[in-house]
Specification:
It contains nine helices and 15 strands. Helix 2 runs parallel beside helix 3, helix 4 packs across helix 9 and helix 6 crosses helix 7.
Length: 356
């Protein structure tokens, strides 16, 4: 990579709180934001969700404004700036109109004059948005890019996942033998992608890629082919190999087929013994926000040299056993792989490296 590309966490808002400290406290003490919500499912069935309790209406706009306000308070960049918004659905309250129509206006309340782009590619949107931001910098199109990952819980999305029998009836258990589906969550995270090294702790973006397995609209390749191809391409672009990776932040939705696919892909790429977690047990599956929120918490793990446990995991439930993190551990974390997989056969990965 000709120029350094740095990633700096600016803000994160989830059911666990709106500060890094609140999230570290929750991860340290095994606290989940998932709760059973009565009558929230189709035909008023109870379903588990991870919703931000402070928000009672207009969830998407409230999440976005809260995260932008916090990001602006710590933002110190300058130069030509773009904003990439990663979201699977946007503001569902705007249906039947364009659900992304109001997003640029809210962004401009806090960062006027910026070019705003939307990336909506199911659950790989967040990682893909960060990869796209890095490409913009390397092409010298912008001096810096703010990447916003956001999705809010809505009846439309909950009913849709219920129709696919993809929702658990309890807290989700990524990679566990008793996993029975995912739990939907909501949140908003913002990172700054820039050529300028931030003050204090910093990580370098070493490379990333995406691929598509073209297997099925809602089912991943049984061989993990798409994820394997993305991991191998990211290794090539970053100059890293499996033995360099200290920690994997996996997608880990807790559905039977996704977690099985990931285990096969990690086995095929010699990553099955690398410490790994899924963060879905803490703040649920936040869809288009997941890649950004989980990248932020991966950076926090690197800064604190801490492996946080895979909440909900008790016993191996995949055909390829993985090195699932069961207890909080201290470990020097220099190089991290973030992965994401989504509906439509999409897979995206990126590698981060700690800077001295």
């Amino acid at each position: 990579m000709d120029k350094p590309v740095y990633i700096q966490a600016l803000s994160l808002v989830t059911p666990l709180g709106n500060t890094v400290e609140q999230h570290v406290d929750a991860f340290t003490n095994g606290i989940s934001g998932i709760q059973i919500h009565e009558k929230a499912g189709f035909q008023e069935t109870p379903i588990p969700l991870a919703k931000r309790a402070e928000i009672t209406e207009n969830r998407y706009d409230m999440l976005l404004r809260e995260a932008l306000e916090k990001a602006k308070a710590v933002f110190s960049g300058s130069g030509k700036t773009a904003v990439i918004v990663s979201s699977t659905k946007g503001n569902m309250d705007l249906l039947p109109e364009d659900t992304f129509a109001g997003t640029p206006g809210i962004v401009h309340e806090f960062f006027p004059g910026t070019d705003v782009f939307i990336i909506s590619n199911a659950c790989i949107s967040g990682v893909m948005a960060i990869n796209t931001a890095a490409d913009y910098l390397l092409a010298e199109t912008y001096d810096q890019v703010l990447v916003i990952g956001i999705d809010a819980v809505s009846e439309f999305i909950s009913y849709g996942f219920q129709s696919l029998f993809a929702l658990s009836n309890e807290t989700c258990k990524p990679f566990d033998k008793d996993r029975n589906g995912t739990v939907l969550g909501e949140g908003c995270g913002i990172v700054l992608v820039s050529n300028q090294k931030p003050a204090g702790f910093s990580v370098l973006y070493k490379g990333g890629s995406s691929s598509n397995d073209a297997n099925h609209i809602s089912g991943p390749s049984r061989t993990g082919e798409g994820l394997v191809r993305s991991i191998e391409k990211t290794f090539k672009r970053s100059g890293k190999k499996a033995s360099d990776i200290d920690f994997i932040s996996a997608h880990g939705t807790a559905t039977v087929f996704n977690d099985e696919m990931e285990s096969i892909a990690f086995g095929r790429t010699n990553l099955d013994q690398v410490p790994l977690n899924s963060m879905k047990g803490y703040f649920g599956h936040t869809l288009g926000a997941a890649g950004v929120l989980e990248t932020i918490m991966s950076i926090v793990s690197m800064e604190k040299n801490t492996l946080f446990p895979n909440l909900g995991f008790r016993e191996t439930g995949t055909s390829v056993p993985l090195n699932i993190i069961r207890h909080m551990e201290s470990k020097e974390l220099n190089t991290v792989l973030k992965t994401a997989s989504g509906f439509g056969g999409g897979n995206a990965t990126l590698i981060l490296e700690k800077q001295p």
